Amino acid sequence: MRHPLIDVHTLLSAAEAAELLDTLYTEILWNDGAFVAAGRRFQLPRLQAWFSDRGIDYRYAANLLNSHPWTPVLDGLRQRVEEITGARFNAVLANLYRDGRDSVGWHADDEDDLGPAPLIASLSLGAVRQFHWRPKPGQPGASGHLALAPGTLLLMRPPFQQHWEHAVPADAGVGDMRLNLTFRLVHPVSH
Questions:
Q1: Where are the domains of the chain?
Q2: Rounded mean pLDDT of 49-54?
Q3: Total-model pTM
Q4: Domain 6-33+44-184 is of which CATH architecture?
């Protein structure tokens, strides 16, 4: 079952996706995903890195991700994603799922920094993982999921983030790594 606010494109061939995975895995300085909220330290079940235009920071759970300038490889990918989507992006969040034990829980990319109707473009590399969605509490709609193969670009169109949550749950049957790049347009806001 497809979601009406999700578009799926093949951005890269399997060979291109495999080569890109190797390049980004080694060139990115991954952080351990630890953050502090409500006075407690939490460990995310994945590694992350943030790349953006100068002056663009990204915050979630009152935490600021270290921002790095675009690498030539990531900037080239951004241009390809912008061509396909017709949208502009000024940042990308890279998530490294080391194996099937790594995951991201239910959430919506609806922080103030992303504006009132964010468009998120998500590129998958590496292991095939299941992308799940469900309506936010009190919203109508049916839950669903789809497999994201390497080279797949998933586009979440507005108002997806306002009414839906999404997740990539742990999957003990997956032994390989997955790298996910989520391209965003961040609007600086005062905190």
A1: 6-33+44-184
A2: 92
A3: 0.91
A4: Sandwich (2.60)
